[in-house]
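Quick one before lunch.
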Amino acid sequence: MTSAPEAPDLPDLNFDPDSLRDRYRRERDKRLRDDGNEQYIEVKDRFAHFLDDPYVEPGFTREPLEDEVEVIVIGGGFGGLLAGVRLRQAGVESIRMIDPAGDFGGTWYWNRYPGIACDIESYTYLPLLEELDYVPKEKYSYGKEILDHSQAIGRKFDLYRDALFQTRVVDLTWDDEAARWIVETNHGDRMRAQYVAVAAGPLNRPKLPGIPGIEDFEGHTFHASRWDYRYTGGDSSGNLTGLRGKRVGIIGTGATAVQCVPHVGEWADQLYVFQRTPSSIDVKDNPPTDPEWAKSLGPGWHQKRMDNFNNLVSGIPQEEDLVNDGWTDLIGNLLVGIRKGKTQDFSPEGMAKAVEIADFEKMESIRARVDELVEDGDTAEALKPYYRQFCKRPCFHNEYLATFNRPNVELVDTDGKGVERITKKGVVVAGQEYEVDCLIYASGFEVGTDYSRRAGMQFHGKDGRTLSETWADGVRSLHGMHVRGFPNCFLMNGSQAGFTASYPHMLNEQAKHLAYIIQTGREKGLEAVEATTDAEEAWIAQCIGKARDTGDFFENCTPGYYNNEGKASERSAQDGFYGGGSPEFIRILEAWREAGALEGLETR
Ligand code: NDP
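Model of the NDP complex:
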């Protein structure tokens, strides 16, 4: 993505690009805050109960373990599962999966709020479809199907064997003499492993807004990622009978809120939705899977579809749009523009102009849809997003906007300022108190804070130096995966790695990559592999250089976790995703494996 250029000369536009650009900037400026990520509260101490697992009986105990396995995989979501699968396929038998949850599933284990679904197309999002001989039931899966699929992967590849659930890794220490990691957990385990693969999840730690008075609220409260069905009744398909007679507040209007608001609005007596920035809400057509189409799929169809989608959303034109939805629309519109001769200038600047115009057109249609669906004019106005489509996570929903037509549902727009205060009884915005019985935080997850804090574990590498210390001035890695001083540790992290809108796509590439290295290590009889200083330096420099490709775009965006809450800096260039785009990043990894030299890794 590129910076905002001059308005091109396009006579048939029914909007003025200059005034839209001004409006976007004003909306961004209104939301910029000095405290950036510091505005959020870490969920610990008196807020720790917000992390409790509602799906298991409390008080689980077991005897601590002191054994050894070849690979410990930390995380039982798609990242960990894919690592486990690719390692199994590479012939590794001795694998132990560890996760704080009660089962596999990761984000789909924790997030079971009413309406939960994935609005990335299921045929591209769900991993390992061909391996499991499974075609999802609909174009967009509901959460339950994805959770079931995660567990089916675990069964199919025998990953439940040796798995430890309800177990949180708290500390990892490298024993350089023995070339083993010592992995300690909240159950007193002290296990050993030659390799560790860490797939702790990009959005695993719920966060709370640092709103004054947050600890004063005396009603019922929880974070949407730990939905309390004992209080609300019902399940992820709705039927929230416990909310009858209740006044409910939801703070946040991101992808989570967009999906649960219609259900809460249907059952609560009164719902207040507290909004800081409106989401972009596009159409979601969700047809059931055509069984004939499913039967017609030939070998390799899944990777081909994933690549097609990833290329399109990365702005790389494809002969065919296999997914054909709101995600791929933008590039589709651009291609239509090119075909119609709207775009004549194919220089990078010319293309940037064309992309910006296609983006304006897309967002104009998103805003027009709000007017079509929302009856009250002021509410409709407040629900319109004024920023470029990929500044924030685009959302797709057919009921969210119309929910605001219900007499019992009120949008409380904070004009970009956020909630002012929380009291014993409710929420204050612009001096007015909204009393509620239940307050639900749909306020997202930690991004951009210290990696070890988010992962909930500390790493002690060679000489006892921690990962937090090593990364104190910014992420240091080769390919986002290896860190000098931390041999045999593979991070499946986003920093300095490619970003794919369908997140499991990148996790799959990282899993293939680490399985290749471990397999090669076995073949060559290696004890340890570690990034060299030179390779790490070169990769960091490449990442900082490439960040300029996306830096201007995000600088002009409304704040959010996509742009480090609006605080772009050299540090965020270093800590962010690989700026050359995920297709390029994937090619780099593939070429590296094809070369077969483990280049940039010191081996022993
Ligand atoms: P987000 O971080 O996207 O949203 C958090 C919300 O809380 C934002 O609307 C934010 O406003 C708001 N907020 C934060 N602080 C305040 C405050 N002080 N006052 C008022 N509002 C505040 O979290 P989500 O859980 O919604 O989504 C996280 C990610 O999970 C998504 O981006 C997506 O990647 C994934 N997801 C995907 C789904 C799917 O496939 N459909 C469904 C759900 C989640 P502001 O925007 O102004 O910061």
